[in-house]
Amino acid sequence: MAQAMISLSVDDIAAKIPDGCRLAMPADYAGVSMAIVPALLRKAPRKLSLIGIPTGGLSFDILIGAGLVSHVETSAVSLGEAGGAPCFMRAVSTGAIQILDATCPAVHAGLMAAQKGAPFTTLRGLIGTDVLRHRSDWKVIQNPFSDTPDPVVAIPALHPDIAVFHAPMADRDGNVWIGRRRELAAMAYASRATYVTVERIVDRSLLEDELTAAGVLPSLYVDGVAKAEKGAAPYGLWGEYPTDTAALQHYARMAKTEEGFKQWLSEAWQ
After folding, report:
1. What total number of domains does the chain contain?
2. Closest by Cα among 135, 121, 209 to 171
3. What does the pLDDT read at residue 1?
4. What is the model's pLDDT at position 6?
5. How many CA atoms lie within 13 A of 62 on its CB side?
6. Is the pLDDT of residue 270 over 90?
7. pTM of the predicted protein model
8. CB under 8 Å to 214, separation ≥6 — which residues?
9. Can you say whether the dihedral through the CA atoms of 64, 95, 253, 58 is positive or negative?
């Protein structure tokens, strides 16, 4: 089994994200690596294509506001209880970014096709929707196993260049504990490279421990790990700490204007 690099820093991970990267990040409840965001701002890769698995939030909004993003593929971008994502909404209204609108099932279907090595998989529920009308890369085909008209939508395999997420822990071999968050495994399986920030690195093998083994993403699918305590904050992390809703609300208020966003950015991570 391959062994991931576990001595990386967040800046090391950011250095591996080039201009034009198709960068996948999970939803706000699933282990967002907010720790990577200031490192990306320092490196400043251009024309990123962000993929929300299946949605995006604060990390997307900050990178968009900083002018690092050209495309977004996701089913939604929001700040949850704190409201809409202001930089995202400004960028959409001005045409500063291009949107590939999706649905949660479609995003997961694309990942499933990728991890199985299939060129596509199919869904039914998109037929007749405006989402399908605006996705020229999704194709309506006839079910080859039906003798009567039976259209289904072919969703192409979704292959992010790099996936980044945050988890509670990894071991010295680079195995990462993701618990019940199996969408993180699907994201890693489908991506060409996966980097993880964690709260801590433990000495015991997470794969050999019966209490943790079932929730482990093996190091075979992990290219590097960086320790970053409170690395999901202000989002919460399951079993570790809750979401700081007040911090998200403060960001939402500040980022309503470009000037406010720039002020927030100048004060953040000080």
Report:
1. 1
2. 209
3. 42
4. 75
5. 23
6. no
7. 0.94
8. none
9. negative
